[in-house]
Every structure is written in C-alpha cells, then in structure tokens.
Design a protein that fits this description.
Length: 252
C-alpha cells in the first residue's frame, strides 16, 4: 500500500491508535495533518514522525468544534494542495451508570464522538467533491457498538451510530467516488489502557486469540480501508478484536 503524495487528516492522534495510524501513513509516503486537543502532545507526535522522515503537520484543537474542523481542512489543502483521506479517530469515553448518568457527560460524548465525526466527514467530503478526484473516509467505532458493556451506554450508543453513519453516507458520497467505512477496535494496548496493571492480563484471558490488540493491529486495518486496495469497499464496519465479540465475556 502506497500513499505517496496523498494527504490525510487524522484526529485524536497525539498518542495511541491515532498516532500509530499517522506514523504508518507517513512511512508510506502520505502528507499527514495530525490533530490532538493537547497542543504539546500533538507537536511531540508530529516531531517524532518528522524525525523518521515523514511529512507531518500538527494541528492542536478541539475537533468537535465546527469552526476548527473547517480550519483543519483549509490548512490541509493550503499546506499540501488537496485532501484525500480523513480518519475521524478522536473520541471520548465517560464511564457512568445509566441510572445516574449526567447530562453534561451525555452531551459531551455526543459532541465529540458523533458531532466531531459527522462534521469532519461533511467538511472533507465537500472538499473532495470540489477536487473531483474522490477520497476515503474512515470512522472509528468500537466493539462496544456491537456488544453491551457495563457503564458505557452513552459511549456504545455513539459507536453504533457511527457505523450507521458510514452505511447511510454511501448513498450521498458514492457519486463523488468517496468511500466511507468504519473500524471497530476491541481491547487495545495504548498509553491509557496500560495504566491499568491488570488490563493486558484480563483481556489476554478473555480474548480468543490470546491477547489484546496492539496499536499496529488497528493501524494495519485502518490503512487498508483508506488505501487504493479498498476503493470498492464502502459502507462497511470491520471489527478488529481477536474474536472477542464472538464470545463476549465481560472483563469485570
């Protein structure tokens, strides 16, 4: 898979899955706009990719804000000439029991996970339509959009909704040669999850393939779906979870 001279925006990419996607895209020749709400994290991540020889521009900001989304697309085009790939990776997880879940948590989860993804896709698709050269969009779902998970009612709802968004937008984006898909990672070893000393052991025990995913496992699948090899795949959701959704034992 070559991404030579193609330009990608990846949100929520200061670390973890998003960063690895950016790193792999840049290694394959893409021009990458790396977004994170944490300015220091975004710059450090972009610097790391540049040191490896990749082309990467950091853009710090809240990718759930409509104005910032428009600016990201403008900056990508102004810097690299066009926009070919968008990966709406940014998301927020706010755990809480359904019976006591607070409105401020509910609406923040919707704003970031749904609003940010919806309007980034909209802005990117309008740019791709104008370019008349097609493009690829990837939404970041989760296994919690497929299987119930304790204290994640709001989060899981948004992830299921993103998969429906990918399916629905086939109707409106296909005429412009824009394909759109979703990826649903399962348990993944990242900076955040490794803060839990029992995480890897627990998920290794309940995952049929015997281990949680690495960020490379998820990035490999993501790169395929935005590559030329997947241009005839659209409206689909790919689960990458080592088989967990087939059996779904609870980690609790």
């Amino acid at each position: 898979m070559s991404f030579q001279n193609r330009t990608a925006i990846v949100t929520g990419a200061g670390q973890g899955i998003g960063f690895e996607i950016c790193r792999q895209l840049a290694k394959q020749g893409a021009n990458v706009v790396l977004n994170d709400v944490d300015a220091s994290l975004a710059q450090t991540a972009a610097d790391s990719i540049q040191k490896e020889g990749g082309k990467c521009k950091s853009m710090a900001g809240d990718c759930s804000e409509f104005g910032f989304i428009q600016e990201m697309v403008r900056q990508a085009v102004n810097t690299y000439g066009q926009l070919d790939i968008v990966i709406a990776n940014a998301g927020i997880t706010l755990f809480g029991e359904f019976l006591t879940y607070q409105p401020e948590s509910f609406y923040r989860v919707l704003q970031v996970n749904l609003g940010g993804s919806f309007f980034l896709t909209q802005a990117a698709a309008n740019q791709m339509k104008q370019q008349k050269s097609g493009g690829s969009v990837l939404l970041m779902s989760s296994v919690t959009g497929h299987q119930a998970h304790q204290n994640l009612a709001a989060y899981g709802m948004t992830k299921a909704a993103l998969e429906m968004l990918a399916k629905n937008l086939v109707i409106e984006l296909s005429p412009y040669r824009i394909n759109i898909n979703a990826i649903a990672p399962g348990a993944t070893l990242t900076e955040r999850t490794l803060n839990d000393a029992s995480y890897e052991k627990t998920w290794s025990t309940i995952t049929p393939l015997g281990r949680p995913a690495t960020v490379s496992d998820i990035a490999n699948a993501a790169l395929f779906l935005v590559s030329e090899n997947a241009k005839h795949i659209t409206g689909q959701s790919l689960v990458v979870d080592g088989g967990w959704t087939s059996v779904s034992p609870s980690p609790f």
